[in-house]
């Protein structure tokens, strides 16, 4: 028989092997060792999950609604991606802090995946620069929670809902060295720009030593083999300088985010108390 309760239960949290589901605390054998994404995608699981999928749509919708609601008034923002495994004294972490700070200086809110490594670094930089530090966390089997530098955080169960938020609320991506997660985020954005689903969306790769091998492969294999065009490759810019990365973002956005921030703040103030104004950045709506 199909069960609908799971689709409306509150967000789950896990700490030291204990699972918290709203007011419910689960220990030992009661702890369910899978995430919502796993249960949605796992066709080998008990059939109740398959029958309850139609009801799950409500929870997916709620995740979009909560994300849109939390980020609607963010103003100009840039997403920073990179390895969850970068250690605090690594060059990547230090560059993440620097780029987060410079983006904040330039008037951008900084959006990350809210996790450790480069995400934490960029959030730390945003805080240091006096900017808005945003983390869009994801429920993972080895969940670590939002890093301490996230000031505005939203936790997602579904990767696809979370990914929509990055593209919808950022004006560009700065991508530091990373693994599968970083590649996923980079190539999703590349595909959206290539197919003109998103326009004027700078994609800056920070760290030429790491990225040049990938760019070479894209040019010498993918483009050479006719699987993408040289113009598609030109959508990516590689730099070693966080300052240059921010300039590239500003250049493609056509104006300084600080100007937009001020205009946006005025617009929001004029529209209070409704708090439901448009994005105010002059860009078309995404997602
Ligand atoms: C693996 C570790 C922690 C995992 N925690 C994460 N929290 C939030 N977001 C994450 C996490 N891991 C991956 N992501 C997303 O993918 C990108 C980084 O993945 P990569 O494979 O490390 O490149 C990142 O931008 C996130 O959006 C700690 O050991």
UniProtKB/TrEMBL annotation:
Q: Where is this region: Disordered?
A: 252-287
Keyword entries, A-Z = Cytokinin biosynthesis, Hydrolase
Enumerate the catalysed reactions. N(6)-(dimethylallyl)adenosine 5'-phosphate + H2O = N(6)-dimethylallyladenine + D-ribose 5-phosphate; 9-ribosyl-trans-zeatin 5'-phosphate + H2O = trans-zeatin + D-ribose 5-phosphate
Classify the source by domain of life: Bacteria
Instruction: Give me the Gene Ontology terms describing cellular component.
Output: cytosol
- The main enzyme category here is hydrolase
Q: What InterPro entries does the record point to?
A: LOG, LOG_fam, LOG_family_nucleotidases
EC number(s) of the enzyme?
Answer: 3.2.2.n1
Molecular functions (GO terms): hydrolase activity
Question: Known Gene3D superfamilies for this protein?
Answer: 3.40.50.450
- Per the record's keyword annotation, is Protein biosynthesis included, yes or no? no
Which regions are flagged for Basic and acidic residues bias?
268-287
Among the GO biological process terms of this entry, one is: cytokinin biosynthetic process
Name the protein family.
Answer: Belongs to the LOG family.
What is the name of this protein?
A: Cytokinin riboside 5'-monophosphate phosphoribohydrolase
Q: Which organism is it from?
A: Actinocrinis puniceicyclus
Source organism lineage?
A: Bacteria, Bacillati, Actinomycetota, Actinomycetes, Catenulisporales
